[in-house]
Amino acid sequence: MKMAMWKKNSQLPAVENCNKMTKIKVAALQMPTVHDKMENVKAVGSYLEQLKDENLDFVVLPEMFCCPYQTANFPLYAEEEGGPVWKQLSSYAKKYGIYLIGGSMPERNQQGKIYNTSYVFDRQGRQIGKHRKPHLFDIDVKDGQSFRESDTLTAGNSDTVFETEFGTMGVMVCFDIRFPEMSRLMANDGAKVIFVPAAFNMTTGPAHWEISFRTRALDNQVYMVGCAPMRDASTGYTSWGHSIVTNPWGAVEGMLDEKEGILLKEIDLDYETQVREELPLLKSRRLDLYCVEKIL
Questions:
Q1: Known catalytic residue: 174?
Q2: 86-100, 103-117, 137-151, 266-280: least confidently modelled range
Q3: HEC profile for 151-199?
């Protein structure tokens, strides 16, 4: 295993540097997904035990880490918030003293709607973030792959940021990264790092995975951390893998291949501040001409 919408003439929130601590250590777990939901959750515990001496701050899991990525599976694997998977992730975050971005999983609400949801837990195991994927993966690529999340999933309706001792962080899920407004909303809210549980496939991955992470990082002068499942050609949906960290200059700081592995990386928020001062893109925006703002 390797270790390694637009609208004129409105104002945006200021993006300010409020960090007191500048170095954070992150791990992306590029893991397989099996059919037994709780076996996947148990596997997360095994990885965390292996990493307990690494002094990690943030750990991120893949999209649908506990559910084979097929539309028919989402209702079958779905749980309400506070269900068995939620409880175990909360317990892991507390036990290992980490911020845990729980990849994503199918969430069922009280009305029976199913969402592709990422829960975020703090070092005490408290839920401090919840992102329901607003951009559903409905594609039909000629000579490529077709997939329709909307067959069984309901779209969320917001971006998501959460607060830590390092400052504000953001989380989005997979297809969200293709919409620059989403990451800009998070940057406007002060996000320093955006975590992206994702599962690009063998058509979209080779073409768009790396460039998407580099572009969003460059546009918003943030770190982007992407975590994918490992590649398994025997499943109905084959992940590209290649979990990745990109920095505010738009460069790749670390990336895995397709196999099972752990991507460990230290993120330097002082470097992010430096890039924003030397190349002041966020300060140079013409807010008298354009902006991105929240509607809901």
A1: yes
A2: 137-151
A3: HCCCCCCCCCEEEECCEEEEECCHHHHHCHHHHHHHHHCCCCEEEEECC
